[in-house]
Design goal:
Radius of gyration: 25 Å
CATH class of the largest domain: Alpha Beta
Distance between the termini: 46 Å
CATH architecture of the largest domain: 3-Layer(aba) Sandwich
Largest sheet: 6 strands, mixed
Strand content: 35-45%
Helix content: 10-25%
CATH topology of the largest domain: Rossmann fold
Structural class: alpha+beta
CATH superfamily of the largest domain: P-loop containing nucleotide triphosphate hydrolases
Number of domains: 2
Number of helices: 9
Shape: globular
Number of strands: 21
Length: 371
């Protein structure tokens, strides 16, 4: 069966494990529903198993349990001893270290995996890649003569040379400086859309995941904790560990005191909060609040013109500059963090110890049941 043909069911279905003797078990457990363009992001802290899961897909690691099917074709079935090697999986793989051949030109690097083609076909494919990746003026240069972004494009081109049905990218922008990463995210997303093939991408960078991904698979300590639509997972983590991995600054325990008209009143520390009631939670909950959803104001309790349901008297416990933003630690009867611009912080003339108000909308308070 041609690997490009999809049988009934998901285009990619991975449910496999790799066991390390005396060490962790790493899961590759996720799916791509259909062929064509999509980016599935494997996300989590360093050491969470993301790269191992990607290598299981690539065939660079052998699964000890479970199976991997792509387009209706079995790539791995541990119970049957089936393990297709990487060259039998119709995929392109871009490792974190681009592994370009330093003695070969850009054109030669792009054509390295095209040995089965005759010279005319090989040259035609290299020309296609040079045009696609805007490398035509660089084809005679060597990797040491290229910028980081140019090296990244050459490495990506080499992974694409054989027109794979699946593309695997391991931290594709991590070798670049921060300004280059920011610039190239949109370029990479647009290029992947042009290629119209499913992609699985590893990153631990939240902004990169949000800008590049369609689906998100959150990993921690070798296991898949949550997966689904990227915005749904980021906005609605299902347990406190996932919330923290996703960068939610405030995760605290609280209790629902009352529910009236779809609005829950919460006791957290010595404070009261309002949140939309998602239903079916029970009374003990975890309360999750992102820093960017918390505004800081001066003035009296009666002087605000805000429509935010929650306006909490607070004291500033810390001010930590982070680039163009300032992270503000607040004591509101419970610890709360806010992220504001440097300009806003300067305009308010904020200092540690100041009495302020923290405001946030009820919709910005996400609740997780406490089991």
């Amino acid at each position: 069966m041609d690997a490009h043909l999809n049988a009934d069911g998901p285009h990619l279905l991975a449910n496999a494990e790799r066991h390390y003797r005396g060490g962790p078990t790493v899961e590759a457990r996720f799916e791509i529903p259909r062929p064509g363009f999509s980016v599935t992001v494997l996300f989590g802290p360093s050491g969470s198993g993301k790269t191992t899961a990607l290598r299981l897909l690539a065939g660079l690691e052998r699964a000890d349990r479970g199976s991997i099917h792509f387009g209706g074709v079995p790539w791995s079935e541990a119970a049957k001893g089936l393990h297709r090697p990487p060259q039998g999986r119709d995929l392109g793989f871009l490792p974190q270290a681009y592994a370009l051949f330093p003695h070969l030109t850009v054109a030669a690097n792009l054509g390295y995996g095209l040995a089965p083609l005759d010279s005319r076909e090989r040259r035609a494919r290299v020309n296609e890649l040079l045009a696609l990746l805007e490398l035509r003026d660089l084809e005679g240069r060597h990797p040491g003569e290229l910028s980081g972004g140019q090296q990244q494009r050459v490495a990506l081109g080499r992974a694409l040379a054989r027109k794979p049905a699946l593309l695997l990218l391991d931290e594709p922008l991590s070798a670049l400086d921060r300004p280059s990463q920011v610039r190239l995210r949109k370029e990479l997303r647009d290029l992947l859309r042009t290629l119209d093939i499913p992609t699985v991408l590893v990153t631990h960078d939240r902004a990169e995941a949000l800008q590049l991904g369609d689906r998100l698979v959150v990993m921690d300590q070798g296991r898949v904790c949550q997966s689904g639509d990227i915005r749904e997972v980021f906005d609605r983590p299902t347990d406190p560990a996932v919330a923290r991995i996703l960068g939610v600054e405030t995760v605290v325990r609280g209790r629902i005191e009352a529910i009236v008209g779809g609005m829950a009143t919460l006791a957290v520390g010595s404070a009261r909060l309002f949140a939309a009631d998602p239903g079916g939670l029970g009374w003990e909950v975890f309360i999750c609040i992102r820093g960017e959803d918390v505004a800081v104001e001066r003035g009296s309790a009666a002087s605000s013109g805000t429509t935010a349901r929650n306006r909490l008297p607070a004291r500033i416990t810390a001010l930590s500059p982070e680039g163009s933003l300032v992270r503000i630690g607040l004591d509101c009867g419970f610890p709360l963090e806010s992220l504001v611009t440097r300009q806003a912080c300067a305009d308010l003339d904020l200092s540690e110890g100041d009495a302020v108000f923290a405001t946030l909308k009820a919709a910005a308070v996400h609740l997780i049941p406490h089991d």
